[in-house]
């Protein structure tokens, strides 16, 4: 039975709030990391895993979370995800060691993987078609797109005027609102028919990605390090086993036809590289602002805003350009622009000015990212059968989180290698190491442009979803 109109819009407010929490938690902790590292005595490797644990668990379990929501019940999954996310946030907020904080962040990612697809599925069934659906998705996308900016500012305010722990504890407030709203305004729904969980696929892909990320994180001790090689090989073997399992499952976690298409496969690779920059490289920018430039937590949060705000401002123009030029030119030019911004950022110095060395780079990167993110979701959904649309969208989001996990591990290895054993932590030494990290990120974005030019091929009409306008997506 359709929901009353007023109740539907309250349901939209609830699920939009949920998406805001999931996205802002990807950035709010970044601002707090220098203080958390100092208080808990985190090593640089542990510091990286505070971010990686969330992104890895979120990305690896997102497909399974979508299946759980569809089969078990979307409202039920939403509520369990909310409660679990809140409890994990409290655990992280009272953590007394780096290990506890990393575990808490991983648990946040696990429950976010339940929460995010359940929220999107609830939005889809609450607004099944028409103008109301377009309005609902526009509101949902706008709120989600603002999440990164809100996280940066809120993280700065809480760290500056309260304590870094409140960057986690503040989630309890959002969770409480979400739970009350869920019980009042959201109705239960789930998929019909014979539904089976692909547990073998879920286990192999999660362990495979975890092994791969851990192997990359160990590369800071050397690429020839036995642990590095062992975990990288194990990760590849487990992911190969995942492909073998999916090819034989009647109801696979990931229908291989989605990623086998050359164009969509290219889009997922570009999304992973973009994720590595948005999650990985920008974390080192936060460190530069606070540790080298001696900005306060709030100052660093505000100083980081030109990147997400630039993306939000340029995205509507990119959306208008998409039907006219098609996705391919945007996906070639966008990464090149981001790479140019990263290249400019690599010239940072210990005594440099923010307005000269950092601000212009962030504006350029934000504009370039808009040209990347707007076409990606459209390309990922082009030519996808309706019953595969949810899985294809989930893979796009998973690719960003997994790309961020792997990218952050690789950038950490590059950063440690650039330090060359220097533990002085002098501003000049750190700035040089961050500079090398930004160069590595720029190379990654140039690789994304090459992937776009070689894999995103076809007529403009073939590369966009039929019968619909361009889909405007957020960068989270």
Automatic annotation (TrEMBL):
It is found in: Cell membrane. GO terms for molecular function: transmembrane transporter activity. It is a multi-pass membrane protein. The chain crosses the membrane at residues 9-29, 49-66, 78-96, 102-125, 137-158, 164-185, 197-216, 228-245, 266-285, 297-318, 330-352, 358-381, 402-421, 433-456. The keyword Transmembrane helix applies. Residues 11-460 form the Major facilitator superfamily (MFS) profile domain. Its main location: membrane. InterPro entries: EmrB-like (IPR004638), MFS (IPR011701), MFS_dom (IPR020846), MFS_trans_sf (IPR036259), Sugar_transporter_CS (IPR005829). The keyword Transcription does not apply. It holds the Pfam family MFS_1. It comes from the Bacteria. GO terms for cellular component: plasma membrane. Keywords: Cell membrane, Membrane, Transmembrane, Transmembrane helix, Transport. This is MFS transporter. It comes from Microbacterium allomyrinae. The lineage of its organism: Bacteria, Bacillati, Actinomycetota, Actinomycetes, Micrococcales.
């Amino acid at each position: 039975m359709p929901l009353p109109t007023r109740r539907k819009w309250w349901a939209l407010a609830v699920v939009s709030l949920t998406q805001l929490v999931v996205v802002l938690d990807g950035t709010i902790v970044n601002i707090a990391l220098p203080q958390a590292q100092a208080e808990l005595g985190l090593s640089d490797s542990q510091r990286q895993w505070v971010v990686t644990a969330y992104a890895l668990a979120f990305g690896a379990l997102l497909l399974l979370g979508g299946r759980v929501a569809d089969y078990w019940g979307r409202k039920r999954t939403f509520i369990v995800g909310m409660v679990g996310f809140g409890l994990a946030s409290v655990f992280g907020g009272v953590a007394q060691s780096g290990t506890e904080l990393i575990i808490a962040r991983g648990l946040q990612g696990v429950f976010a993987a339940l929460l995010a697809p359940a929220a999107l599925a609830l939005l889809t069934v609450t607004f099944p078609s028409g103008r109301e659906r377009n309005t609902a998705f526009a509101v949902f996308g706008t709120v989600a797109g603002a999440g990164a900016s809100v996280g940066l500012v809120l993280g700065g305010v809480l760290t500056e005027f309260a304590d870094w722990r409140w960057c986690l504890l503040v989630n309890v407030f959002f969770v409480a609102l979400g739970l009350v709203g869920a019980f009042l305004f959201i109705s239960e729904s789930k998929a019909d028919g014979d539904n089976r969980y692909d547990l073998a696929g879920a286990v192999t892909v999660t362990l495979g990605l975890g092994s791969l990320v851990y192997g990359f994180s160990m590369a800071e001790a050397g690429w020839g390090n036995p642990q590095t090689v062992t975990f990288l090989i194990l990760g590849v073997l487990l992911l190969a086993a995942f492909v073998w399992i999916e090819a034989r499952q009647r109801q696979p976690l990931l229908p291989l036809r989605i990623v086998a298409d050359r164009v969509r496969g290219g889009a997922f690779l570009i999304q992973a590289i973009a994720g590595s920059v948005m999650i990985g490289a920008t974390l080192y920018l936060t460190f530069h602002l606070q540790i080298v430039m001696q900005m306060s937590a709030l100052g660093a949060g505000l100083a980081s805003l030109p990147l997400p705000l630039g993306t939000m401002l340029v995205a509507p123009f990119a959306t208008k350009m998409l039907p006219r030029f098609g996705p391919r030119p945007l996906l070639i030019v966008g990464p090149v622009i981001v790479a140019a911004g990263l290249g400019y950022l690599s010239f940072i110095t210990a005594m440099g000015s923010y307005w000269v060395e950092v601000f212009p780079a962030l504006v350029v990167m934000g504009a370039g990212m808009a040209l990347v993110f707007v076409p990606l979701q459209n390309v990922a959904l082009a030519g996808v059968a309706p019953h595969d649309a949810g899985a294809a969208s989930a893979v796009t989001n998973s690719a960003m989180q997994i790309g961020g996990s792997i990218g952050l591990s690789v950038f950490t290895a590059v950063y440690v290698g650039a330090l060359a054993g220097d533990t002085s932590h002098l501003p000049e030494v750190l700035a040089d190491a961050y500079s090398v990290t930004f160069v590595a990120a720029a190379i990654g974005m140039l690789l994304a442009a090459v992937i776009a030019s070689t894999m995103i091929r076809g007529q403009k009409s073939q590369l966009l979803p039929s019968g619909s306008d361009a889909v405007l997506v957020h960068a989270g």
